[in-house]
Amino acid sequence: MNPGDHPFFKVVEQRVSARNYRPDPVPQEHLELILNAARLAPNSGNQQACRYLVVKDREKLDELKEACIINREKVLRARGDEVPEESAIREHYDVVFSAPLYVLVLVDKTVRYKGYEQKDGSLAAAHIILAARALGYGTVFYTDSIPEDLCMEHLDIPERYSRTCIIPIGTPERWPEKSDRLPLSELVFLEKIA
Ligand SMILES: Cc1cc2nc3c(=O)[nH]c(=O)nc-3n(C[C@H](O)[C@H](O)[C@H](O)COP(=O)(O)O)c2cc1C
Predict the structure, then answer these.
(1) Where in 76-140 does DSSP place strands (E)?
(2) CA-CA 20 to 30 A from 45: which of 53, 81, 108, 185?
(3) How confident is the model at residue 1 (pLDDT cuts 50, 70, 90)?
(4) If you measure from the C-alpha of residue 102 to the centroid of ligand 1, how many angstroms do you get, rounded to a whole number?
């Protein structure tokens, strides 16, 4: 096989952040394959600081969505930005919360090798995102769109954890266009960076 034809590269090529989902559930065996890929990710000193909180409960997701809507208005006002109609903010968050399930990548802040947890969390998230794409699902690495403090409060997450990201997993309503990247020639340097 031509090395470039390896299925891994197809998965990487096809991955794109998806934000609008169909409600179709993700079968448990698919979710387990995806989370097992996260479990096997490289991590600092093999201290395994990551935990994965799966949220499917619509009531909990709706509560978090309402908190995000209220918060968004407050943030825009505090910044002095134009505040859209509440209905526009709600429409946006109806999309953000359209997936059938969400995985929060949490990291234990009490681990021995402190300061590495967020790096561990990001690597685990990358495994989740690529494994999900390999199985035909969309994802996105959400941070500020669903603020960490709201997740901590509304999903009742103990203080010892901090959140790397929250990842929806589901079948996209439609696959978005891939976003552009700089060419390798602008990104890669041999021996010395300009
Ligand atoms: C650290 C990090 C934080 C991100 N936070 C958000 C976010 O809060 N909201 C959002 O819509 N997308 C977020 N994204 C997704 C990026 O916007 C997206 O990956 C980027 O625009 C490239 O597009 P692509 O993933 O489709 O290639 C985040 C991605 C990363 C890696």
Answers:
(1) 101-108
(2) 53
(3) confident
(4) 15
Q: Candidates 75, 133, 143, 166: which one to mutate for ligand 1, based on the most atoms within 8 Å of Cβ?
A: 143
Q: How far is Cα 44 from Cα 88, in angstroms, rounded to an integer? A: 42
pLDDT per residue over 25-80, tens digit each? Answer: 999 999 999 999 999 999 999 999 999 999 999 999 999 999 999 999 999 999 99
> Chain-wide mean pLDDT for the chain?
97
Ligand 1 site, residue 140, Cβ cutoff 6 A: yes
Taking a C-beta distance cutoff of 8 angstroms, is the pair 98, 23 a contact?
A: yes
Domains of the chain with bracketed CATH: 18-173 (3.40.109.10)
Helix axes 7-14, 117-134, angle to 10 degrees: 100
pLDDT per residue over 109-128, tens digit each?
999 888 899 999 999 999 99
Strands (E) across the chain are located at: 50-55, 101-108, 161-169
CB 141 near ligand 1, within 6 Å: yes
114 touches 69 (CB < 8 A) = no
| Residues composing the chain | 194
Q: Which atom of ligand 1 lies nearest, measured to the CA of 140? A: 15
